[in-house]
Amino acid sequence: MTQPRTTPVFAMLLALTAVALVVLPFVSTFDDLLTVIGMKLGIAAPLQWIVPAEVRVTVIMLGLLGFTPVPPGISSLSGIRAARRKPSSFPGTAWAGRA
């Protein structure tokens, strides 16, 4: 009797997941290191005017897909409903009131 074909697939997925879980802490630590180096070199200043524009573009793209932006920190459904009734304080989401 032959072995099912899905066994190698699941083994590969399990192996990739294990490798990702081992590598992920190093990636996030390296990211923090790059952030500190960038701040010391003065690269952070240009990012302070790039990031708000990038956030606005992301919000607009998600809005086109039907997602309604919610300000950070709101986690309950009643808070989400309240956020839809009033303009959002999240950058670039003055139109978040329509849902």
Report on this model:
The protein folds into two domains: 1-42; 49-99, no CATH class. It is mainly alpha-helical and 99 residues long. The protein has helices at residues 6-41, 44-64, 77-85. The N and C termini lie far apart (57 Å). It is built from three helices and no strands. The model is unreliable at 95-99 (pLDDT under 50).
- Please count the helical segments: 3
Domain module tally:
2
Q: Strand percentage, roughly? A: under 5%
Helices and strands, in order, run as HHH
Estimate the mean pLDDT confidence.
75
Number of strands: 0
Radius of gyration: 21 Å
Taking the sheet with the most strands, its summary is: none
Structural class: mainly alpha
Give the terminus-to-terminus CA distance. 57 Å
Uncertain segments of ≥5 residues (pLDDT<50)? 95-99
Shape: flat
Measured as a percent range, the helix fraction is 55-70%
SSE blueprint and pairings:
Layout: H1 6-41, H2 44-64, H3 77-85
Short description:
The radius of gyration is 21 Å and the shape is flat. The C terminus is likely disordered.
List keywords for this structure.
99 residues, mainly alpha, 2 domains, 3 helices, 0% strand, disordered C terminus
